[in-house]
Design a protein that fits this description.
mainly alpha
């Protein structure tokens, strides 16, 4: 009887049955992962334009109304770490399918919530359930897609997350204006459910994943520690923390600036700014393709530089230049994110789901911690302080990217 573990057997396998670019299976997987990203982030962010409505409907403060979003993202960050361990036994495809269906149904249930506290419970549950998608999707791609085409597919997945984040905010606002918030949430849940069904029908079964029976906490702990001991991976995790922190900081506080004089944008006009996420969709896909062709670290450094340039442009007093700066920042961020997330799968030697979970944990902690910290700078010194704060984070991310390239065996 062999003493070789399933993970070791997978690592020692002479060849893998990858999904290669140009095949029907590759196209199905790419579209399925796009739908998973769309469903996840449209459901996650659909409540953001509804926060003022919640404050009025349930007689809560603005800070309390924000819990409808922050609870979901907080539980999502926790669940991402757990999801990697669960997927080792349940399987990547099965866990993602359960997560997408469950989150869609919870969104529909939240639309019928009779009181505020039940709504918060449902939103927290939804965030936890959604944790089964982001890290596991990255692991699936790293395991199943031919490395030569991984960047393009990862870019398409990240593009789906961008499209979902935009759609969740913009569509819910439009639906709520004409139908009220409850039908708006129910419609978003239904759209998410349709995307989830499409994902299940399209995604090919795993070919290179070895299911691990039972649950061994020591195995998972060793896997996470092993990735933290990889000299390149923790630096890539730092990039996720800093880049997402800078991106969210700009988006969190740009609204406060633009609704005030001299701009005085309406809530509808402000909401339409989220349509610049369309540029993120294109940039993430283009970034992945360029990374496959010219080198991932070269494109990562370029993306971070573009993000910094966009942030600096928002210092202008001209509204068109500010909006252009947000477009440039969005494009640079999604280019950087698609490359960095793809690098995790390339740098992790095995247990790629665990590595992806650490990346996404850093990503969402950066969003929460640095996004909140940006508010102190805004209150203290205004918009210029927010921009300099983001530029400092991006400078650190740029240095981290150089360090990751030095520590990495990945070419480019």
């Amino acid at each position: 009887m062999s003493d070789i573990s399933p993970v070791e057997a997978q690592a020692m396998a002479p060849a893998r049955d990858y999904l290669t670019r140009g095949t029907a299976s590759y196209r199905r997987a790419s579209l399925a992962l796009f739908l998973s990203g769309f469903s996840t982030f449209s459901l996650l962010y659909c409540v953001q334009p509804l926060l003022p409505v919640f404050a009025s409907e349930f007689a809560v403060s603005p800070a309390e109304s924000s819990l409808a979003l922050s609870l979901s993202t907080g539980f999502l960050a926790i669940a991402i770490v757990c999801a990697a361990a669960v997927s080792e036994g349940l399987g990547r495809r099965s866990l993602m399918s359960i997560s997408l269906i469950g989150a869609s149904l919870l969104t529909i249930a939240a639309a019928f919530s009779p009181d505020w506290h039940l709504l918060l419970v449902l939103r927290g549950m939804q965030g936890f359930v959604l944790g089964g998608v982001p890290a596991v999707a990255m692991a699936y791609l790293a395991e199943e897609i031919d490395p030569k085409g991984l960047g393009a597919t990862m870019g398409l997945y990240v593009g789906g997350t961008a499209f979902g984040g935009m759609s969740g905010r913009v569509l819910t606002g439009i639906f709520a204006e004409y139908l009220s918030w409850r039908p708006a949430m129910a419609l978003m849940g239904t759209i998410g459910l349709a995307a989830a069904i499409g994902f299940i029908l399209l995604l090919p079964a795993s070919r290179n994943f070895v299911r691990r029976s039972g649950f061994d906490p020591r195995f998972h702990l060793r896997a996470w520690i092993g990735h933290l001991r990889n000299p390149a991976l923790p630096v890539v995790f730092a990039i996720a923390f800093l880049a997402m922190g800078s991106f969210v900081t700009i988006y969190n506080y740009a609204g406060f600036r633009l609704v005030a004089p001299p701009y005085e944008l309406t809530q509808t006009e402000l909401g339409l700014i989220f349509t610049v996420y369309m540029f993120g969709i294109g940039a993430s896909s283009i970034g992945g393709i360029l990374g496959d062709r010219f080198g991932h670290f070269a494109v990562l450094l370029t993306g971070l530089a573009v993000t910094a340039a966009g942030s600096a442009m928002t210092l202008s007093a001209s509204l068109p230049v500010i909006i252009l700066g947000i477009i440039v920042l969005t494009s640079g961020f999604f280019m950087s994110h698609s490359i960095a997330s793809g690098l995790v799968g390339k740098l992790a030697k095995d247990t790629k789901g665990h590595a992806s979970s650490l990346y996404m944990l850093a990503y969402y902690v950066g969003s929460s911690v640095m996004g909140s910290a940006g508010g102190w700078f805004f209150s203290a010194e205004g918009w210029s302080a927010v921009v300099f704060f983001t530029l400092a984070m991006l400078a650190c991310a740029f240095a981290a990217a150089y360090a990751a390239r030095r520590f990495s065996s990945v070419r480019g």
